[in-house]
Amino acid sequence: MSGFKTPYPDYDVLKKWDTPSWNEQTRAVIKRRLDEIPERRFLSEDEWTLLEAIAARLMPQPEREAPVPIVPWIDEKLAEDRRPGYRYVGMPPMREAWRQGLAGIAGEARERHGTDFRDLEPDAQDALLGAVQRGEIDGRQWGDLPADRFFSELLLKEIVAVYYSHPAAWSEIGFGGPASPRGYVRLGLDERDPWEAEEQHV
Amino acid sequence: MFDAIDQPRAQDGRAPDVFRPGAWVQMRCYDDSEQVDFAIVGTGAGGGTLAAKLAEAGFSVVAFDAGPFWRPLEDFASDEAAQGDLYWTDERISGGADPIQLGSNNSGRGVGGSTVHYTMIALRWRPDWFKSRSKLGYGRDWPLSFEELEPYYEEAEESLKISGPVRYPWGKRRKRYPYREHPVNASGLVLARGCERIGIDWSPLPLATLSAPRGMAHPCVYRGFCKYGCSTNAKQSVLVTFVPRAIAAGAEIRDLAMVGRIEMGKDGRATGVSYNRRGKWRQQKARHVVVAGYAIETPRLLLNSACPEFPDGLANDNGLVGTHLMTHSGPGVWGVLDEEIRSYKAPPCMAGTEHWNYSDEGKDFHGGYAFMSQGPLPTDWAQTLAARGLWGAALRQEMTRYNHTAGLVLVGETEPQAHNRVELADEKDQYGLRIPRVTFSYSENDRRLIEHGRKSMHQVLAAGGAHQLWDTHDTSHLMGGCRMGDDPKDSVVDADGRTWAIPNLWVCDGSLFPNSGGVNPSLTIQALACRIGDRIAEMAKRGELDR
């Protein structure tokens, strides 16, 4: 994704770490997110690498030497079975849905291209994921799982949530980040506190 | 914050002091075998408020919450992902033609309930809605009038020190809000500009967050994490208002205590509750039981408490428990502005319009709606864009316009319909209790209202200066399921929240609502709880309580 541009190239939310915008509680939470990446516990190695390949298309970060880790946090959530609080009629419980959904995408790739999803060209991967999103799939690969629901309710939702929980993502969109205890003073249109990101007008 | 999830904090004669990190306050504790006057199930807007009222009236009270007892100042990080423990995330099955997303946006788990993470909008009902069938020709009448509830709205607003405008444009003329209004943030000013340009009223919203100090709590610092826990105690949640009052007046709050069953005697009266704490089932004896678990857990508990005398569930002889569940339709309209908005600053919803709640002219539907300015944080916003179908490079690039985005979201009335309901599924949860199945479908009228609301929001947002508008759809709030009424044949409880079928079993939460109105329900729930508390005290004085 060579074309990605941020209006905040010089902003790093982590520079506020020791300022009154961050408190102890928040530092503890973010320190863990940065330093303690969970080990694989729930997904098989095969599922893990497949999900990495999918996440690289749904949330591409080609310009980063060290991409924001996504799969470890999804695996942790699955290992701890932390559910969202509901599932739609017709959807299996969260863990089964992930297992079936990943198997569905793998099967879909084999069926369409006779090869592994991980070995497809990015364009072909994107086309396949787009078909899953629209529910245009080969029913035999998915069992009773509604593929489009899996894509939108679990797969994509979790991947973007993990990415935008990371300070690197906050920096590139100019989000103020943690703000306790200091908060903000200037709230109006085109108003900015000195401790907020400054937009670069190109 | 993890110890609050693993171990009960409120026990052995003390409870967490919500105003001081690491500190405790004394709390009276009761033995399970001690018959208390009231066992209350739930400590949110309904149960927590009622616990304070009843304890202050001199009753012995034990209030149960399935979740933890937080100390906001030490437990709440400024982080979306770290705050997932505030929600009710036990499994629920959601179906119907328009299944509702449950969990984060319409539930709470923990002392204070969902008021711990609500957006603090404190609005009164339009007076006519209490008699919507007789006065407006749709929905259902409440068994009480606006005038009967009015003093309790005032009491709730005073108890929460609501910060609001000197003159609120809609509703019956009222006295000033206890605290002055907050300055409106940029996303609110977009709504204001749009409304002014098309010639309708708007207003800064009355909010339950402090605009001046109160006791040990500081004024709001506009950090913007209000959909999560407030780390400064400016938010006047039940956790930092009514719960400390309840404890000071002698009530016991039991955290991490999941009530699974209401116990019944052979005489057809409730004798107490069975609850699970630290993996053990125990029973608390009580003269009265109040269910305040909100619109899903309240019907679920009544249904799960079926016994030989009440085979279809408690207070369910007419089959109405769990029925007429309502939500608020929440279509959203979003757009991009040339100006910087940075809507992560300050409470998410600072301005709104109730124009279409109070003006019925030109409507092709029954009912009303309000809409408010919005302030989503990054993961929330990214998931909104994902729901729009964006992913990959397109999503990542669109996210860089975050600071230039503003939007409006509707709080749209939905009709009470019998087939929208809470039932029990066969599947069981970690306590061995049957989980709820929720069914919801919009009516034709609901859909017309949504379309009308969408058009209004497009008009206002475009007039406010936004371009490239696009739409989302969501819901907010839950109401109904144990509706109150005048007639035992077509309601579950009377105007005091007392079940028709079991004289010492009560309901006190949003499930009481016969209709849903077009504003956020919490203030009305708290006004009802204040009223029910006073009514119970009056009935006790007259010897009518233990009939």
Automatic annotation (TrEMBL), chain A:
Source organism, top-level taxon: Bacteria
Protein name: Gluconate 2-dehydrogenase subunit 3 family protein
Species this protein is from: Sphingomonas changbaiensis NBRC 104936
Taxonomic lineage: Bacteria, Pseudomonadati, Pseudomonadota, Alphaproteobacteria, Sphingomonadales
From TrEMBL, chain B:
UniProt-listed Pfam families: GMC_oxred_C (PF05199), GMC_oxred_N (PF00732)
Domain Glucose-methanol-choline oxidoreductase C-terminal: 416-529
Protein family per UniProt: Belongs to the GMC oxidoreductase family.
Domain Glucose-methanol-choline oxidoreductase N-terminal: 107-328
Protein's UniProt name: Oxidoreductase
Keywords: FAD, Flavoprotein, Oxidoreductase
InterPro entries linked to this entry: FAD/NAD-bd_sf, GMC_OxRdtase_N, GMC_OxRtase_C
Coiled coil: none
Keyword Oxidoreductase in annotation: yes
Annotated GO MF terms: flavin adenine dinucleotide binding; oxidoreductase activity, acting on CH-OH group of donors
